[in-house]
Amino acid sequence: MPVLLHIESSPNGAESASATVAHHLAKKYVEHRPKWTVETVNLWTVRLPDLDALCVAARGALMVPRNESVPAATTTPAWEEVLGIAAHFAKADAVLISMPMWNFGAPYRLKHYIDLVVQPGITFDGKPDSKGHFHGKMTGKPAFAVYSRGGTWLPRIGEALEEHQAPWLRQCLRFLGFTPIREVFVEPTSLSPKMRAHTLAAAFRQAEEAAAL
Ligand SMILES: Cc1cc2nc3c(=O)[nH]c(=O)nc-3n(C[C@H](O)[C@H](O)[C@H](O)COP(=O)(O)O)c2cc1C
To answer: In tens digits, what is the pLDDT along the chain, a chain of 213 residues?
Structure first.
């Protein structure tokens, strides 16, 4: 059975705007594709191992050609755990990431998770092409991103503030080779309850469109 892997990165459970919209998207996605199933992982309820010096060395040893200054890979329990998390992510047939904006970018648990799953030989090819470019191994798999923000960030052209939420995640997903990448924006969420309801309704419509594609 093909799996849509939903990675939830808000700690807010049922109150989370990003997760609420993502659950709606997932529900619609499987309605259109009855053979599919949804697996949800909330990053605040799972253990994420530290990417310590031994893990970083083991990662370096997977690059081709191997960096000779990096000692041969020593496997450790933490690295085995990292490989398991990356392999689980790589196995998904489609990925949905729901993400609140925290200080203009990613909540740290999501940054941590992405640093664990972007691994040479598993989710991207550790051997660069003749131009030195790396290629993702998630090609042909769709990815969905649901971004929630307290403020209004979409029409900010010409303003000094930059946001690093959507551009960062989009770049990671592109690097890994996902296509197509569909995005849903849930903003603003921090105004009145009435405004929040309006924001959610608009985001549900975006989610339905994304799920139908
Ligand atoms: C630690 C923290 C940092 C935040 N930083 C921003 C920010 O930089 N810009 C913004 O518009 N909203 C910011 N917010 C508000 C959240 O993005 C907003 O409440 C969002 O709806 C949370 O999504 P969730 O309900 O899925 O957790 C922040 C919230 C928290 C808890």
So the answer is: 999 999 999 999 999 999 999 999 999 999 999 999 999 999 999 999 999 999 999 999 888 766 566 556 578 999 999 999 999 999 999 999 999 999 999 999 999 999 999 999 999 999 999 999 999 999 999 999 999 999 998 876 666 678 999 999 999 999 999 999 999 999 999 988 899 999 999 999 999 999 998
Token pair listed for 22: 């993502």
Q: Residue 130: CB partners within 8 Å, gap ≥ 6? A: none
Strand partners for 127? none
| Domains recognised in the chain with CATH numbers | 3-212 (3.40.50.360)
**Which pair of tokens denotes residue 197?**
């309801």
Q: State whether the beta carbon of 100 lies less than 6 angstroms from ligand 1.
A: yes
* 12, two tokens: 């807010």
CB 20 near ligand 1, within 6 Å:
no
Q: Is the CB of 69 under 6 A from ligand 1?
A: no
Pick the residue whose CA is nearest to atom 8 on ligand 1: 103
